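Researcher: Go.
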Amino acid sequence: NAEYMGESLLDPDNATAREAFEDVLQPRTAVGAVTIFINGANYSSVLASKKSFGTGDIAILRSDGGVFAIASQWEKYGLELNVFPTQDKTMTDGRRLHDPMMSGGITTLLDAFGGDLAGMQDDLVFRAEYGSYRLAAMALTLNDADMRLYIIMCFERREIYGFVDKLILVSASVGAAIVVGCSCLGILCAFLIFRELHRVNRRLDGLTRLTFHDDLGHLSRITEVRELQLAALRVDRALRAFSLYLSPAVVKAVLGSQQPATLGMEAGDVSIYFSDIEGFTSISEKLSPADLVAVVSKYMQAMSTIIIENDGTIDKYIGDAIMAFWNAPDRVEDYKLKAVLSAVECQKRMETLRRTWRDFGWLERGWPEIRCRIGLSAGRVLVGNFGSCHKMDFTIVGHNVNLASDLEAMNKDYGTYVMASAAVIDSDVDDEYVTRLLGEVPVGQHSMTRVYEIVCDKLTASDSLLSAVSIYTAGMEAYLDGDVAAARQRFLDYESAVEGTTTASKRMLEACAGTLE
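Model: Structure:
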């Protein structure tokens, strides 16, 4: 605020004052000194009025970093700002300002020019970053004089880039939300599809084990999955019907095989079961066709269930006869014991059926009671696919198969209902069941085998029964050893023990009498 004769030299309308001021500044011979004191407070006010952003600040500097004016209230620094130092006033060093934003910016600017801003070119805008702040600075020359000042503007990054950052953040958030939403939707759709496919797969996998489902279940809204569900249902029904024509064990073996079915058989050890209804011809003559089918179906259902539950494979139904075997196609532990167990349980089940039929007036109608005879054998056979390329059966072939069929028929001659070859009576069977030696029969063309009656399980056998069986077996052993007289006496003792004559004892007494004569 230079004054001349009490008037401001900076007033553009005061021509006298302006001429005087310019005259003072003209270079000429020094005849005295004029001191101009410029107070930076007014310039600070001007800068403050021009500042258009909140947290930033503007300052005017000398080349050495001294602060001439600053937009913020300079009084807060506790220093007076002057362009030229006087005796008792010094220019504030910008690096010592209490404001970290401005002090940091001025320090950064000075460091960039080696501590002296005189090297900054006019009209050059210098930009720099420091921490979370930004600065911009440029040099100004006043009225073509030697005096140069430097304007520096410092601000927080968010002042300029806040909106951009917010826009980027919003855009990123929206993008992320879209991505997450699409991902969640995709995952949900994938989960729903996978769940439906998993159900179909579980159902198809169950079919390989002949696990059938009566209900269709929930149909998917996805066309392809729904068609797959319907296809699985058709396969379910087809296999259900197919398994009624073949043994479930055979169907499982076919479904589980990775190879196509071909003709071929191989040797294997099995136990064989043959059963037939006693006097079936006379029974069929007395029953109407409908009654006969109902009775035989009931009988077949009961016997087949027991065989299958004991891991047996039903080979075929031959009229009223049932043929089954164990240990093929699946390996069965204790296959001989399970064949005997099935035979004994079948006879117990027959007794239950007879009681049921009696309750329905079976005898009153003049119908004979139904009994079945069972023959068991065990040994080496050929097992596999037998037949032709047009039709094949999974079956067994060999003289041991014929033996089981023969033993079933021989029951009639001995008055027994379960007869087994010696190969069936292993240690496990002998430990659990009461057996009675009946004699020897030919196997094939060149060998003989002993045959036994499976009487009952030992847990239910009475002492008197065990004693009678032991006497009969001793008599048969004597007969086979050639001691016919001793055998005859044993058979007589047996009849005394059972208090009557049995078909087997009568047969053997007649054989002994014929030999002794």
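Model: The longest strand covers residues 372-387.
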